[in-house]
């Protein structure tokens, strides 16, 4: 009860409304943990990466999810399937696909593997090819593709996971600023560093017109804007402060954005609940959805709107959450 009252209070403070929905369904995954979703140019999907390294595709309600791709050439299903992906050594063998995004023009699936960086696989799936060359990634996390130029933006969270244990230290104490924003140009096949000093940049989305990139900084509860074009090109500024820790940002067809926001407070006692916030390209909060009813206090990694349906991801669950009929 307390968290729900709390969220109402928060939202009223921000002059936004709390919305509801007509139905909630689960698409059962073969194993636990999916961080991010993408759909191909024929609207098939969702596709998602699992904690155990598999990239799977939702085929149809009868079949469910099928294996689609991997990020390591000799991934063993016997050893890897069902592993939890929290051990870096296991992930080196099994793969750790985190961010996924289709280039809808070329029909290629771009994959960010936490440790291998940027990879690509064709629409037929299979073993992905590494594109990041010599560039070192501590923990590559979020990806988006400029639909006009094909340029790919990616974030690396930095070395926070190897420096801080347990998770509560990361969340409530870490002043880590080792995150980076990078871009890959498929024409030149080069990776460029755009921004350093980011506080666990867990989410990323490019604006519809390609003029700026939004970066979710998990530790500082804010969204930073990096200008790609125009008079402020190559500079960054704070775009929006949020009521909790943001994870992925996903753009809608109309050019708004959904941010997965995890409200988490330790004092006076631990309270946590997952929210989805829809924001406009001007930085106005348009909708706030509370997922506590279906997710309890589980933290979520992504909220994605696809053809009016909301898909909600969490690395802690073994399902894709599907919300239909969003209403006031
Ligand atoms: C294949 O996986 C094993 C661990 O199971 C690893 O030691 C080896 O280096 C891998 N080989 C290749 C070519 O990736
Ligand atoms: C990974 O392997 C290295 C070398 O064998 C070992 O020192 C390290 O403790 C392992 N890490 C984990 C998380 O198991
Ligand atoms: C932004 O940086 C790129 C190199 O990364 C440079 O080519 C471009 O001219 C810069 N633009 C401005 C407006 O400073
Ligand atoms: C939330 O809690 C209820 C009741 O304990 C449980 O049935 C449900 O599976 C939980 N949901 C998640 C996503 O953990």
- List the bound ligands: 2-acetamido-2-deoxy-beta-D-glucopyranose
Give the overall average pLDDT.
Answer: 91
- Regions with little confidence, pLDDT below 50 for 5+ residues: 1-15
Coarse structural class: mainly beta
| Quantity of strands, as a count | 26
Radius of gyration: 18 Å
Distance between the termini: 20 Å
Give the percentage of residues in beta strands: over 45%
Describe this protein's structure:
- This protein has a single domain, classed as 6 Propeller (Neuraminidase).
- The protein is 11% helix and 46% strand.
- The relative contact order is 0.15.
- The two termini are 20 Å apart.
- The chain is mainly beta and 328 residues long.
- The structure holds 2-acetamido-2-deoxy-beta-D-glucopyranose (4 copies).
- Residues 192, 233-234 line the site of one 2-acetamido-2-deoxy-beta-D-glucopyranose.
- This is Strictosidine synthase conserved region domain-containing protein.
- One of its GO terms (cellular component) is vacuole.
């Amino acid at each position: 009860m307390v968290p729900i009252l709390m969220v109402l209070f928060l939202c009223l403070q921000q002059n936004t409304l709390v919305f509801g929905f007509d139905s909630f369904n689960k698409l059962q995954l073969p194993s636990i943990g999916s961080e991010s979703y993408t759909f191909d140019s024929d609207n098939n999907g969702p596709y998602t990466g699992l904690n155990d390294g598999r990239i799977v595709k939702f085929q149809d309600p009868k079949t469910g999810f099928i294996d689609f791709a991997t990020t390591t050439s000799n991934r063993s299903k016997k050893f890897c399937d069902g592993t939890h992906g929290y051990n870096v050594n296991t992930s080196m063998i099994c793969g750790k696909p985190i961010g996924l995004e289709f280039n809808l023009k070329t029909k290629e699936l771009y994959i960010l593997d936490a440790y291998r960086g940027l990879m690509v696989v064709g629409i037929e799936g299979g073993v992905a090819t590494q594109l990041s060359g010599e560039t070192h990634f501590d923990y590559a996390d979020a990806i988006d593709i400029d639909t006009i130029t094909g340029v790919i933006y990616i974030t690396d969270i930095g070395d926070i996971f190897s420096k801080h244990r347990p998770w509560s230290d990361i969340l409530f104490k870490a002043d880590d600023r080792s995150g980076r924003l990078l871009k890959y140009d498929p024409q030149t096949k080069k990776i460029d560093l755009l921004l350093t000093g980011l506080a666990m940049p867990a989410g990323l989305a490019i604006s519809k017109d390609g003029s700026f990139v939004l970066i979710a900084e998990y530790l500082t509860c804010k969204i930073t804007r990096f200008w790609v074009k125009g008079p402020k090109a190559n500079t960054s500024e704070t775009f929006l402060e949020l009521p909790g820790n943001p994870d992925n940002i996903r753009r809608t067809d109309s050019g708004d954005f959904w941010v997965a926001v995890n409200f988490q407070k330790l004092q006076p006692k631990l309270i946590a609940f997952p929210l989805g916030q829809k924001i406009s390209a001007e930085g106005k909060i348009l909708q706030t959805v509370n997922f506590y009813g279906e997710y309890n206090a589980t933290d979520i990694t992504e909220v994605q709107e696809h053809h009016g349906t909301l898909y909600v991801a969490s690395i802690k669950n073994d399902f894709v959450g599907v919300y239909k009929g969003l209403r006031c």
